[in-house]
Each structure stands twice: as structure tokens, then as C-alpha cells.
Amino acid sequence: MTPPPRKEERPVAALIAPDILALLEESPNDVAAETEEMHAADLADVAEALPIEQVRTLLRVLPAERAADVLEYLDEELRSELLEQMTPAQAARLVSEMTPDDRVDALEELEEERAEEILAEIAPEARRETEKLLTYAPDSAGGLMTTEFVQVPETLTVDEALASVRRIARAGRREAMHAVYVTNEQGALRGVMSLRELLAAAEGTRMSDVAWEEVVSVPATTDRAEVARMTSEYDLVAVPVIDDAGRVIGVVTVDDVIDAIVEEQTEDVQKLGAVQPLEEPYFQAGFWSIARKRGGWLTLLFIEEMFTGTALRHYESTLAGALALTFFIPLIISSGGNSGSQSATLITRALAVGDVEMRDAVRVFMRELGQGLVLGAFLGAIGFGRALMWGNGPDLAWVVAITLLSVVITGTVVGAMLPLAFTKLGFDPAIASSPFVASLVDVAGIIIYFNVAIYLLGLT
Amino acid sequence: MTPPPRKEERPVAALIAPDILALLEESPNDVAAETEEMHAADLADVAEALPIEQVRTLLRVLPAERAADVLEYLDEELRSELLEQMTPAQAARLVSEMTPDDRVDALEELEEERAEEILAEIAPEARRETEKLLTYAPDSAGGLMTTEFVQVPETLTVDEALASVRRIARAGRREAMHAVYVTNEQGALRGVMSLRELLAAAEGTRMSDVAWEEVVSVPATTDRAEVARMTSEYDLVAVPVIDDAGRVIGVVTVDDVIDAIVEEQTEDVQKLGAVQPLEEPYFQAGFWSIARKRGGWLTLLFIEEMFTGTALRHYESTLAGALALTFFIPLIISSGGNSGSQSATLITRALAVGDVEMRDAVRVFMRELGQGLVLGAFLGAIGFGRALMWGNGPDLAWVVAITLLSVVITGTVVGAMLPLAFTKLGFDPAIASSPFVASLVDVAGIIIYFNVAIYLLGLT
Question: What would the pLDDT profile of B347-356 be if each residue is shown by its tens digit?
Fold first, then answer.
């Protein structure tokens, strides 16, 4: 037998852009059949490489449900542009076929007026549901959830429940059908069973006897980061969202949780790089919006760093007496900044993933003090050698070495303690970014340096 | 009706540590029944708060399958310690009940000799399976996959397939049962159906007619980051892993993908903070192991930064003629470093999530050049005012302003281009960490500063 091709990366899209382009021009009605086996994500990839008029043609010739699938996977910007160009009725036909949570995402990206025009064309039931979902914050469980899920009364038997699942599955696609939720007479969530468990259960038993009663659920206001944490901790594929009466109002599925995790991580990384998180991908974020988000932090860091000038002016006479001191200023302050950045990064991330908690503050302090000692002694030794090589004499070499040791210890301790302090004060620990810690340690470094020099070299 | 309690955070564990401790001492045989409804993750949380001898008792009184579940959710360190303390036979009884992928994880954490003693006590079939899984790199698809999955021949009808699924589900737990894989006569993967699709399909149809033929699959050597990217792109809950002949040898489930995403992210953040990624959580990583991982980067940055001293020595006479120049050195070089860190962070992250690709290099360059112009002009204006306030005269103020503009432009452009250059050269773009970029720009900053000063102030 011939082995199938190894799929080293993603499966190659069955048809690539030029093929689809030719097909769209020559026999548009064959496009649906020819692309039938392609994953909607791949077809969306291909669509992104086409001129926008051809994407419109593509969406028109595909069955509405398939077109909606492709639309879900399209780049946000392109999707918005397409929905703006269609008539409200055409747009409504497509978004009606999207899963409720993706429909809400698509409408949220549009101008409000346009979104309302499209909503007005959607069937009343779906419209009410969509309007309800639009009221939740996009970063909350309510903003992530879909309203398509399966629930059955606890009085049903396993085979009745399974029949009900089959009926619902056949009636249309239900995104969140990894689990079946079991409700009491008042409609409140009482239990959960995965489809696998349902298939394994003895047919005559009541759902109330076999369903798991300890259901992990969240209210609609829960932050997406918390939903992600729970999904990860309990190895879930779906988290039910409940109202005040304990009724399931939606389900957050794992694919949306993964997207949320990646977005949260992007925000954390940007904060650590001293950038106010961008809300859009790099190229989609506006030039001035990025400049503002960077400018704020840069200005703050600039003001923080101005104190290095104040400190240096203070030691003007010392400097005038030993100009060679200047040569080591950048080396010394950057060593403090670098070791501080390392500690801040390690502790911020450890806090984010739960490896370090507030109660570990003393342990962290002791550990980073030790790291500072070891790393500072090491860099001090190299600095000592370098100063001797430059012919600055053993006295200045000792100043450099002792300063490096002190500055690296300052860096590791300040860098490690700041994220904990920010957490304690209710701020985001990621504010303690590499540049922020470095700037803070810079000022300390200069003060330490000149005091060591004044003491050891007998300067004034 | 009384509404059920709102679950603001995680569901509170039904029994907390002191209760369980008392129960373990007074009537250990009731523990299993009393904790039955608790999620294994919660029971593991409680166990982590108990003395280790009590955790051993707990694992002994729970049914083996349940104890294995708890063991899976336990902290790595504690799990290893427990498995070290038991006899190989006791340990084998527990790890036999774990899912194959978690069993491999647990054994990989142990001393090799110990792992082999435990393996020797496991039933032959499970042992061979485990030994096979142990051969894959932990960061690969093979290292993440479980070997429990469901596949059926394509010649089966939908109702035969469903009956087969029920039989397998009843025979024991099968972690990866969100989808059913369809194989041809040679056992090669030909299609996939989700359980939901299987339930919705018409009963008499053949699997070959209804299963999706375009299956997203990976070879065992695929890096976990790539598996994560595919899971996210195609909204999957499981990715089948195939051998060279196209046969399914395992399945990576979404819970392991989420763990992989979080771990990959931790590595990226640590690299951006100029730390060689730790392999363990902060407190579990050895002190000297952390010091080595930090020391390497710190030394490299230190050597890089030494060139600032070389540059400053080069301008010794200029400095002697205008000592006030010194006061602005840290301010100027840190502004370059900070704007460079921002650009490096933005572009590294955009590369990681696919928002920016190599072909966008020119666009990125132009955009960051623009950002540098705007942000540099802004900081230059503040610096100009500050220099005037310090009474350094308009000439020096101009030097500071023009230098800031040039240094910030250098920072943004270098910071943005380095991650792209590293990618092009086949390195990890995250090497372009904040400290790395800052150190590089520091040297450039000093050279720019003194050249502007020499030119504008007529110094030598």
C-alpha cells in the first residue's frame, strides 16, 4: 500500500487561491461541491488571499451555513468589511447561520448603526438572543458563551435523554454538545454528564442517579481569565454559565477558552514590555492608538529616569575629581536593571500561573537575595578584571566590583518584590515590567556607586 | 424556591482539609463515600494541604481508579515523593489506573531506576504501551498523546459504530472520546466524526459516507507548539497522531494542549526577561539551576554593555570639556532601551501569534520608524525642557533633544527588526529580550550622543 502523505504541518488546503479564483470565474456553481471537504478554516485562509469582490462571490455561492462557517474563521477586519458591503438582508442571512457567540463577536466589530440594521433583519427569536448576549462584557463568561447547548430534566431516563440529544443534534448544529446538563423542576442546573458517560450509562437509570452533581459553573460576569483557569484546572471542554436562579443561560466552549488564554497572554507580555495592551492585532491597531499606548509608559519611565540626572548632578564634584568613574556608569546601572528584569519576569509569571502566591513573599525574598549574592559576586569579579585591564588601578576596580555586587542584589530583590507589592496593593503585577524595574534600579545604582567611590577612593 | 449558592469562584470543595483529616483518623473507610462527589482536582487540592502520611492513607482508602485520578491532579513534587515512598507494587497499582499519557508524565518525573521498578510491576500490555510512549520527547505530539481513543472500520454503519462506542465506553474510561476515528482496511486514518455528529447521523448509513475525510492529524514528532496552534486554528478538542503508514497511534486531547500553551507561554515570557527557560515551577527549580540559567544571559549582557565603557573612554576629552554631558547619559540610553523593549515585545508576540510574518518586514520597519519619530520627538521635547530647567543653556538642550529623537528611532527600529532577523536566521525571536535590545541600543545611544554634542557644541 502507498502510505498517505505525512502531514508535517497543517493539512494542505485541497484547493489553493488561484484554483478557487479560476473556478469562481468560470463555474461559480461548482465551488461549493469542489471545496466541500476543506476545513472552513482553510477555506477562510484561501479567501483572505483573494480580492474582496471574489470573497463576496464565494460567500454567495456557498450554502448559507457553510458561508457562515467561513465567515467565522475570517480575519476580523475582512469580515467587518464584507458585512459592511452587503445589504443588511444579505448580512443577516449569513450571521443568522453563525453560532450565537460568533454572531455576537461579528456584530460587535461593526459600527453600532450597521449592527442594528443587520439585527433588524434577523428572525425575532435569534435577534432577542443576540441582543441579550450583546449586553455582556466581551471579556466575561457571558461574552464568551454560546446559547446552543443541551439540557434535559433530571427525571428523564438515560435512553430518553439520549433520544433527546439525538433529536436536538439532528435539528441543527449545537456547538457545545460535549456534555448534557441536567436540570430540576425549576430549571436549575443539578448535574452534568459527558456524551461519553451518557453512552456508557445503563439505559433505564434516571439521569438524577447517574449525573455528576458537583458541576463546575460560573456566573455570566466571571472574567475570562478565571474561566480559563477553571477550564485548565478541571480539564473541562465546556463550562456552563448560570444565572442567579442557577439556570444555565449558556456554555463557554474550550475553543473560546483557548482564544481567551492566548489573548490574556498577549496582554501580559505587552505589559511586561511596558506597552499598554493593544486591543487588536499589531497591524490592525491604529498607528496613533499604538503611539498613545507606548507614549504613556515611555513618559512615565522617562520621568522616573530623570532622577538619575538629579543624582549625577549631586555628585558633580566627585565626578570632576575622577572622570574615569563615568566609564562604568552604564555598565553598572544596566547590570542592576538586567538582574531586576529577570527577577520581575520570573515572579510575575510565577504569580500568573499560581506557582508563587502572596504567602510565599518571605521565601521569594530569601531566594532572590541569594540569587543576587551569587550573580552579583560573579559579575563583580568580571567587572574587577575589566577595570584592571583598562588600567584604572585596583582602587577603582574594587569600587566597581563592590558596586556591582550591591547593585545586582538591589536589582534581584526589588525586581522580585515589586510584583508581589503590586499584587498586594490590588494592581496587576505585570506593571513591574523590565523597563520599569530597570529605571528604578538605575537611580539606586548611581547612588550606590558614588557612595562606594567616595568612601573607598576618599573623594568628596 | 431557594436559589442555589452563586459560585463566584471555583466550587468550594465539599470537604476541607481538617474534615478529611478527622475522617482519615476516625473512620478511614468512610472517606471514599464522603468525598465521592468532589472533583478529583479539588480532592487533590485538599490532599496538598495534608501531611504526606495522611495523603498516603487517603490514596490507600480510595478505590484505585479514584486514587489515580487524585494523583493525576497532585502537584508534581508531591506525586513523585508519594510514588518514591510506596512499594513498587503499590505504585504500579495506582499508575496502572492513570490514563496512559498521565502515567508517562508521572513516571518521567521519577528517578529512572525507580520508574523501571514500577514499570516491571505493571501488566505486560500496559507496560509495553507505556514504554512506547516514554520514547517520545515530552514536548512532542507523541509525548502529549494518550493511547486511549476510539476507532472503527469505515465499512461499519452509523448504528454499528455507535454500538461499538457504547461497548468501549462501558468497558472503561476513554479520555479522548470526543470523536470517533474511521479507518480503512489497512488501519489507516480515513475520516473523523464527533460524537455529536455520530448521534445526528442517519442510522443505516455507512461511516465512509458520513465521516469527514479531511482530518487534521500530526506525526508523533510534531512540536507541542504546533499542535497547540492547530488546535486553536481549527477549534479542535482532540488531534489524532499518526504513524508513517497513516495509522492512528494516539490522540492529543485539548486539556493537554491547554497545559502546553501555558507552558510555552511561560518559556516565551522568561526568554523575554532574559532568563533561559526554567523547566520546573519557580520553587521547584533548584537554586543553582536558576543561577546558571540567569548567569549565562547576565554575563552576555554584561559583555555587550562593556562597549559603553569603551565608547565613553573614546570621548574622554569631550567629557572633560563638558561634564554636564554626563548627567544625561542614563536618561538618553534608557529611553532608547525602553522604546526598543516595547518594539521587541510587540513584534516578538505578534510573530508568536501569527499577526506578523517574515514577509511583513518592510511594513514593520516603516511602522516602527514612524513610531520612533513620534515618540522620539515627544521625549525630545520633554528632555529639551528639562535641560533648560537645569540651567544647561539652549545649546546642550538641543543636543539632548536631537539625541533623544535619534536614540528612540534607533531603539524602535532595532527592537522591531531584531526578532525578525533572529527568525530569519532560524533562531527563536524571543532571544531579542528587553535587556538584550536595551544593551545593544545603549552603546548606539552613547555614540549618537557624543557625536551630536561634538557637532553642535563644537567640542573635540
Answer: 988 888 888 8
On whether the CB atoms of residues A138 and A220 are closer than 8 A, the answer is no
By mean pLDDT, which of A49-63, A81-95, A273-287, B47-61 is the weakest? A273-287
CA distance B375 to A274: 14
- Judged on CB neighbours under 10 Å (0-12, 13-18, 19+), B134 is middle
Measured CA angle at B102 (ends B101, B105), to 5 deg: 95
Residue with the three cell numbers 540569587? A371
Question: Do residue A232 and residue B259 have CB atoms under 8 angstroms apart?
Answer: yes
**What strand order describes the sheet that includes B218-219?**
B218-219, B238-242, B248-253
Decide if pLDDT at A126 tops 90: no
For residue range B22-64, what is the model confidence (pLDDT) as tens digits?
888 888 888 888 888 788 888 888 888 888 888 888 888 899 8
pLDDT at residue A227, rounded to an integer = 93
Q: Any residues with CB less than 8 A from the CB of B434 and at least 6 apart, and which? A: A272, A273, A341, A433, A434, A435, A438, B272, B273, B274, B337, B340, B341, B344, B345
From chain B residues 326-385, the ones with a CB under 8 A of any chain A CB are: 326-331, 333-335, 337-339, 341-342, 344-350, 353, 355-356, 360, 363, 367, 370-371, 374-375, 378-379, 382-383
On whether ipTM exceeds 0.85, the answer is no
Chain B, residues 236-255, CB within 8 A of chain A, namely 236-237, 242, 244-246, 254-255
3-state secondary structure string across chain A = CCCCCCCCCCCCCCCCHHHHHHHHHHCHHHHHHHCCCCCHHHHHHHHHCCCHHHHHHHHHHCCHHHHHHHHHHCCHHHHHHHHHHCCHHHHHHHHHHCCHHHHHHHHHCCCHHHHHHHHHCCCHHHHHHHHHHHCCCCCEHHHHCECCCEEEECCCEHHHHHHHHHHHHHHCCCCCCCEEEEECCCCEEEEEEEHHHHHHCCCCCEHHHHCECCCCCEECCCEHHHHHHHHHHCCCCEEEEECCCCEEEEEEEHHHHHHHHHHHHHHHHHHHCCCCCCCCCCCCCCHHHHHHHHHHHHHHHHHHHHHHHHHHHHCHHHHHHCCHHHHCHHHHHHHHHHHHHHHHHHHHHHHHHCCCCHHHHHHHHHHHHHHHHHHHHHHHHHHHHHHHHCCCHHHHHHHHHHHHHHHHHHHHHHHHHHHHHHHHCCCCHHHCCHHHHHHHHHHHHHHHHHHHHHHHHCCC
Res A4 pLDDT > 70: no
Residue A239 parent element (H or E): strand A238-242
Claim: this prediction has a pTM higher than 0.80 = no
Cell of A289: 492608538
